[in-house]
Design a protein that fits this description.
4 domains; 20 helices; mainly alpha; single chain; Arc Repressor Mutant, subunit A; 0% strand
């Protein structure tokens, strides 16, 4: 990675969101930003500018305007002059808009109900977060060509249907909120898989923490919004304890609770209480409660795996998903024994290429005394290119056999 890759990655969501809103063309916004990045790698030989985002915005906008001008010339059309950059006063006035964040605005745009429900979150993660197609495919448990086709269809739908690049009226938010929440949930899951935040999705953790809090302020009467915000806070509270002295991942039951961020735990509890008071339960509230139960070890000194297993039973009923089955099997292994956990895990089909599945199979097999099965599962997990901290953890567990 280029030495200033982190600065570029941090600026990407904001710049692409602003470009898409200005140009009303997702492909052009992404292409212009890519061109600006290529220029930045040449123009920043020693250090990035004071505001990398502003530099990339100006460079990308120039490229986009040039591309439009060339296209207009070819079609003998007259190209309007570009709008001037907003003044500080205009920017201040814009802060009073219903959604005071360019990235969250673009998420709402990409989650337009004109798009198929299974396309909204995928398109948003591609455009706003820059998630690579192969990683998107893994996140949604589908083949890469099928994911590419899904994104392509969504972009064509936006262009062909004339989907407006504007923030919907507040009364239209509820019809988009499920897709918005799915987008943020999948984005956070990508960061959560990397305990050391050493990969391309490192910035997603802080970004979803911020955006979920903003969304909770904007939609305080939506319990699932509050549930997601609580979930992220419970999980991020434990991040300081997720690495050992050698940089290896530490699983939740082995983490040092003294390292947890108690203020985030308290924030999560308040949000979850507010969600419960609305008396409309949903999957993200259940997930948040599972994370809250893990955090409860700070008060009780033990993890109540029976409650966690019961919560996964409920979650499996209202949102069936292979990931739920895998996590439920782990909880059953803790409450009823490794053999029971393996029996529950046997219900999962077609997940051999998913790292958490192989890691769970390895751990349960090792506890059940099935060392050959455990070695095979650890080898399979390591072959799936885990992040550095996870690799160190898996290698250590395999050696322990």
């Amino acid at each position: 990675m280029h030495r200033f890759g982190a600065a570029i990655a941090e600026a990407r969501p904001r710049v692409v969101a602003a470009l898409a809103a200005r140009l009303r063309d997702l492909d052009l916004a992404e292409d212009a930003f890519s061109g600006a990045c290529a220029a930045a790698l040449v123009a920043w030989p020693n250090q990035p500018p004071r505001d990398p985002g502003a530099w990339l915005w100006r460079a990308a906008l120039r490229r986009a305007i040039d591309a439009k001008r060339r296209a207009a010339t070819r079609s003998r059309a007259v190209l309007d002059a570009p709008e001037p950059l907003p003044t500080p006063e205009e920017a201040l006035m814009a802060a009073d808009q219903p959604i005071p964040d360019e990235r969250l605005k673009l998420i709402f745009v990409c989650c337009h109900p004109a798009l198929a429900p299974d396309s909204r979150a995928a398109l948003t993660l591609k455009v706003v977060c820059g998630l690579a197609t192969d990683r998107l495919a893994r996140a949604f448990f589908m083949a890469e060509p099928a994911m590419l086709q899904r994104i392509t269809r969504a972009k064509k739908k936006i262009a062909g249907a004339g989907v407006p690049f504007e923030v919907p009226a507040r009364d239209a938010w509820p019809e988009r909120v499920e897709a918005v929440l799915t987008t943020l949930e999948v984005a956070y899951a990508q960061a959560y898989e990397d305990a050391a935040l050493a990969g391309e999705t490192a910035g997603f953790a802080a970004e979803v923490l911020r955006l979920s809090g903003l969304l909770a302020e904007l939609m305080p009467d939506e319990p699932e919004v509050l549930g997601l915000a609580a979930l992220v806070r419970f999980a991020e509270a434990r991040r300081p304890a997720r690495l050992d002295a050698f940089g290896a991942m530490v699983p939740p039951p082995e983490q040092d609770i003294a390292l947890w961020t108690r203020s985030l735990v308290a924030d999560g509890a308040r949000l979850l209480d507010r969600a419960a008071a609305l008396r409309r339960s949903g999957p993200r509230q259940i997930l948040a409660t599972i994370h809250a139960t893990h955090c409860g070890r700070a008060e009780t000194g033990r993890t109540d795996w029976a409650i966690i297993a019961a919560l996964y039973d409920v979650l499996a009923d209202i949102r069936p998903h292979a990931a739920t089955v895998v996590n439920r099997a782990v909880a059953i292994g803790e409450t009823r024994g490794a053999d029971a956990g393996l029996a529950a895990l046997a219900a999962v089909q077609g997940m051999d290429d998913w790292l958490p599945y192989q890691a769970a199979r390895a751990a349960l097999s090792a506890r059940a005394g099935r060392r050959d099965d455990a070695r095979a599962a650890y080898d399979a997990a390591l072959a799936l290119r885990p992040a550095p901290a996870e690799r160190l953890y898996l290698e250590a567990r395999r050696r322990s056999l």
